[in-house]
Amino acid sequence: MKKTKLQEIVEGHHKVEEEKRLRYDLKPTRIPPLPKGEAALSPTTKAGWQTEGIIRAIISNLHNGKNWEKFFIYGGSGKAMRNWEAYYETIDMLQSLEPNETLFMQSGVPYGKTITHQLAPRCVVTNSVIVPNWTQSFQEMVDAGLTVYGQMTAGSWIFIGLQGIIQGTYETMIAAIKSAENSPNYNKLNSFEQNLIVTAGLGLMGGAQALAIKMAGKIALIAEIDPNNLDRMYNEGRDTGTPYLDIQVDSIGEGVKLAREYALKNQPTSIGVLCNAVNLLEYLIRNKITPHVLTDQTSAHDMLNGYIPDKMTYDEAIELRTSNPKKYKDLAFKTVKNHIELMVELQKKGAETFDYGNNIRTQAFKEGCEDAYNFSGFVPNYVRPLFCEGKGPFRWAALSNNPKDILTTDEYAKKLFHDDPMLINWVELASRYIPFEKGLPARVFWAGYKGRAAFGMLLNKLYADGLLDAPVIIGRDHLDGGSVASPYRETEGMRDGSDAIGDYPVLNLLGNSLSGATWVSYHGGGGVGVGYSLHAGQVCVADGTPLTQERLFRVLTWDPMSAVLRHAAAGYEKSVKFAVKNKIFVPGITEDKKVNYLDLYEELCSLVKERTGINLFSPSSSENIRLL
Asked: Could you give the angle at the alpha carbon of 434 between the alpha carbons of 61 and 305, nearest 5°?
């Protein structure tokens, strides 16, 4: 029988992979270590901290991930690297990369390198970018070893564990709670129901829900079918007295009973129940319990490797997934249809209901659920006003591998942003509740235009002045205002109908590349699956040099500015007003076409000095700044 083109490709690829196996040990016996103590305070690479930061970020991803041996980080199948051959090859190339060279990565394997310049990114990463007409063949391509699913921060090497999503989850829950309290349905709920938030999924994204809901002052009742996820969230942070999940039970009835008891005591807590989400929602409807807020964070974007059908245990599901994937997917789609129908029913009874960006409504709609879009996503409901002002999930991690450095940055964040009560509140909550995880110590908060650049430049100078033991890496989630096209998540219901326009993440990527980010990334799929989104990311290594201060100014000005421009282009008045107020040029709207970036640079230097006492590198200390 004649071979198909794909079979020929697979055979050729396997031959190349076999040759690579002769050069590398296939798999280490333990997770690659992160340096500690004195060993963590100096770079080992030819290009110094700029490439050392990338290596440590990759390894940190593995430490924070779900299954380091297979490079699975989170979100079912989100991977940091394609295989161990690719990992060793990447580390080797980063070790020897010159300060004016750039390494290119193609879906988890090194693609090549070329001479660029010192302001160029040291690494450019792409993952799961498929020509649209072939997205249905994505899993075939993964099986053939041609690509991997990069998720958002797994394949871009800036996953910082649960903390990376927890503030966004907290802010979303606060917004959902306020929205529910303003609804006429609120007074129809009893005191128990007014304190109850119900959701599902305690993986490495959904796991943040438990602590975020507790921090928001409510009772979290969360379905999770994987006992390993339950155990992990129950044990995470318990040794420091700040666990992510307070209670785990095997019985839905017991979980509801405990939730009621804690609600009567007005004591916020989180309860994980070992069950399928469908069974929990059926129980609530059967017992006439309507939660205050209802959502879901199961891995519904991946109906084979993520979502679990009902009427079976987790182990039974994993066995069926391997033995009969077609039957598995059929059952998963039937379950997701029922799942959404139950959510819609609870919404009609008064629950504030929203899609938390896992594409669950679309999966149910494909299975014939006509009411799947009766509720909308969390971005148009709660987050878009922040995007309009360039606010988004800014994050940083300490290359010293010492939590002390993060605590130092917390204190300076409170000084710089002393007039932002929400941000200060978050930093204090984070230092109180959120444990540092297994990878590099890290922190996250939502910051916007001017704020991101000022704080990034400050972090760089803290290391230069000896207040940090080593540099920090500064990045963000791909879930940001100017970096993504995702019609069922970040760009759902755009005012001008531009939900599916993919130009914007490409422009964000190119702007960050040209501005001098240390590494940039471009992925397909994100949290909703390949074919449903395109998104870009950037990370900068703040190595304490004047040149890096410039890079940070350029990148962290453009990155949030692109969110303002994207929403101004879509006709959001809030973005237009913000642009005018902050002298951001918007074609066709703002009259002054000249933007004085040197004035902005000096404004940020003055702001940092005034609020923190730290003198940033002055414009006169660098020849390149004259280009502004």
From this structure: 45
| 3-class secondary structure, 154 | coil
pLDDT score recorded for residue 367: 96
Each residue of 138-161: pLDDT tens digit? 999 999 999 999 999 999 999 998
**In the chain, where are the structural domains located?**
163-375, 386-627
What's the CATH class of domain 163-375? alpha beta
The CATH fold assigned to 386-627 is Urocanase fold (3.40.1770)
Q: What angle separates helix 451-464 from helix 597-612, to the nearest 10 degrees?
A: 60
Lookup result for tokens 């039974």: 316
Alpha-carbon span 416 to 424, nearest angstrom: 10
Convert 568-588 into a string of H (helix), E (strand) and C (coil).
Answer: HHCCCHHHHHHHHHCCCCCCC
The candidate with the shortest Cα–Cα distance to 164, out of 540, 476, 448, 563, is 476
Q: Do 435 and 236 meet the contact criterion of CB atoms below 8 Å apart?
A: yes
What pLDDT digit, counting tens, does each position of 424-457 carry? 999 998 888 888 889 999 999 999 999 999 999 9
d(CA 416, CA 587): 32
Query: Token pair of 224, please?
Result: 């999770």
> What is d(CA 102, CA 108) in angstroms, rounded to the nearest whole number?
16
CA-wise closest residue to 380 among 621, 179, 155, 610? 179
